[in-house]
Design a protein that fits this description.
Bound molecules: adenosine-5'-diphosphate, magnesium ion
Largest sheet: 6 strands, mixed
Number of strands: 24
CATH architecture of the largest domain: 3-Layer(aba) Sandwich
Strand order of the largest sheet: 6-7-8-3-9-10
Strand content: 25-35%
Number of helices: 17
Structural class: alpha+beta
Helix content: 25-40%
CATH topology of the largest domain: Rossmann fold
Radius of gyration: 32 Å
Number of domains: 3
Distance between the termini: 102 Å
């Protein structure tokens, strides 16, 4: 009883499950393996792009899903249905009701009108028995794709873009949950391609699942999942996720150089202070990022999981590792490593990746610096500083001016600043005195927040300039109340600074008197 009920109950697993799919073509030249043990799952409602070099096996994969061709080994389930086990008759009946297929070259039947092309799958599958009903449904589908006015023309009388829109309408004829398209925009200009893509977006919004092979980077970047095929295998999706800023060609090229590695729980992957030679992407498990404290303690500053990368900071800056990264205590970690030379090639080839890495490096440095000041938990800190941008000040530029009003304080993330007192009232008017130089991890601007909002000294970038983050009063107060360490450090520093300002201002005042 229970068994029957559960068998009839709604199926809520993945819509597509492919396991160890192998396709070997027998050619006069010998056996050729086009798919080499491919595994993938696609969830209901996903809009997935399938990308890969020409000849990588995309069409072979798609043809196995649609049943146009048969696997040599492996399993394909769509919903609960084992596609690999259906015979031709079962396959044809199942496909007609459950699958919409769109091809690169439209494949409309040239002797049927557009509306007849859309009606044909309904006739073959007997879902809509009445001819009137079929015609009305076909016309409303042609309306959806905006070619209803041409309904009674032959395919040859309309443009390629219109033929492809009809092909999308035809794919929807029996209202299938899944649409599979092999380079549906490959033969269209970019404006027409955009219209087809928009139609797909609407169908996904209505709850359909779409798998689309495409060469178009711009379109591929707009779907919610990218499946990359290289040499008949699926490229690990977390590598794809981590490198989303790359173009298809760059992504496919670089994945050849990644080397998989595994680390036991607690094992160190990179060590602070060592030379950095590799870049890493996590494909499974979690890592802890730790920074050494002046007292010798390690502080947890971040926790990264699959799809995240690390190791880029030292490689970009050509410096030593700024943190220690260790496999988390709760399990093994799988990563892929890219050597320094290939990493440099990658970022010199990809401006978008370079920019993204720059932003990530900034955010991570900021988190490490503020963390070192306040010793807050990672998530608490992230909630507090959010995604605040870093400001870069070139050497000599003023960050805040003595006497001006201010309601923020600053943390130095990189570079150096000097704190300067203008002695306008002194005997040597306009003279100035450098009170202090501050380095990364130190803060300034807090005196105005503690006092009457007036800046008591000028701060400007020195050396090679400074990268700072400006934090408002609310963050300041939150830090004071939630971090004892920050409050104590602030009190110490502020007292020392006030004392120095008073000492250097004093002679000027007495000289005046
Ligand atoms: P893609 O769609 O990614 O360009 P395909 O799936 O069409 O690639 O082809 C993958 C590989 O399999 C190619 O090397 C291709 O030459 C080969 N191949 C495809 N179909 C056949 C076939 N029917 N017989 C022999 N080899 C084939
Ligand atoms: Mg192909």
């Amino acid at each position: 009883m229970t068994r029957i009920d559960s068998a009839k109950g709604a199926y809520d697993g993945p819509l597509i499950t492919v396991r160890n799919l192998v396709k070997v073509y027998l050619t006069p030249a010998g056996a050729f393996t086009a798919l080499n043990g491919l595994d993938v799952q696609v969830e209901r409602g996903e809009f997935a792009a399938v990308i890969g070099k020409s000849g990588s096996g995309k069409s072979t994969f798609i043809n196995m899903l649609t049943g146009i061709d048969r696997p040599t080994a492996g399993e394909i389930f769509i919903g609960r249905r084992p596609i690999h086990a259906l015979n031709e008759t079962e396959m044809a009946a199942w496909r007609g009701r459950n699958l919409g297929i769109v091809f690169q070259f439209f494949q409309l039947i040239p002797t049927l009108t557009l509306v007849e092309n859309v009606m044909l799958p309904m006739e073959l599958n007997g879902l809509y028995v009445n001819r009137r009903e079929r015609r009305n449904r076909a016309l409303s589908l042609l309306e959806m794709v905006e070619v209803a006015e041409q309904a009674d023309k032959l395919p040859s009388a309309v443009s390629g873009g219109q033929q492809q829109r009809v092909a999308v309408a035809r794919a929807m004829a029996n209202d299938p949950p899944l649409i599979i398209a092999d380079e549906p925009t490959g033969n269209l200009d970019s404006r027409t391609a955009e219209r087809i893509f928009n139609l797909f977006e609407e169908l996904v919004a209505q709850g359909k699942t779409i798998l689309m092979v495409t060469h178009d980077d711009e379109l591929a970047s707009r779907v919610n999942r990218t499946i990359v095929i290289a040499d008949g295998e699926i490229v690990n999706e977390y590598i794809v996720q981590a490198l989303a800023a790359l173009s298809q060609d760059q992504l496919i090229e670089v994945t050849r150089y990644f080397e998989p590695r595994t680390f036991a729980r607690g094992e160190t992957i990179v060590r602070q202070g060592e030379h950095g030679a590799e870049f890493f992407i996590i494909t499974d498990g979690k890592v802890d990022v730790l920074v050494e404290q002046p007292g010798g303690n390690e502080m947890l500053v971040d926790r990264l999981s699959r799809g995240h990368y690390f190791g880029e900071m030292a490689l970009i800056a050509g410096s030593l590792r700024t943190a220690t990264v260790r496999a988390a205590a709760d399990g093994e970690v799988s990563i892929v490593a890219l050597d320094g030379v290939n990493f440099q090639n990658l970022i010199s080839d990809s401006r978008s990746l370079r920019e993204e890495l720059g932003r990530i490096v900034d955010r991570r440095l900021l988190a490490y610096r503020v963390q070192a000041l306040a010793e807050l938990k990672v998530d608490q800190l992230q909630a507090l500083i959010g995604r605040r941008p870093l400001d870069y000040y070139p050497p000599g530029s003023t960050i805040l001016r003595q006497g001006s009003l201010g309601d923020s304080f600053f943390v130095i993330v990189e570079g150096e600043v000097e704190v300067v007192l203008d002695q306008v009232a002194g005997p040597v008017g306009g003279d100035e005195k450098v009170l202090e130089r501050l380095a990364p991890g130190q803060f300034f601007g807090e005196l105005a927040l503690l006092g009457d909002s007036r800046r008591s000294a000028t701060v400007r970038a020195s050396g090679v300039g400074a990268k700072v983050v400006e934090l408002d009063r609310a963050v300041f107060e939150e830090l004071i109340t939630s971090s004892e360490q920050f409050r104590m450090r602030l009190e110490d520093d502020a007292a020392g600074r006030q004392e120095r300002i008073a000492r250097h201002s004093a002679p000027a005042v007495s000289g005046d008197a």
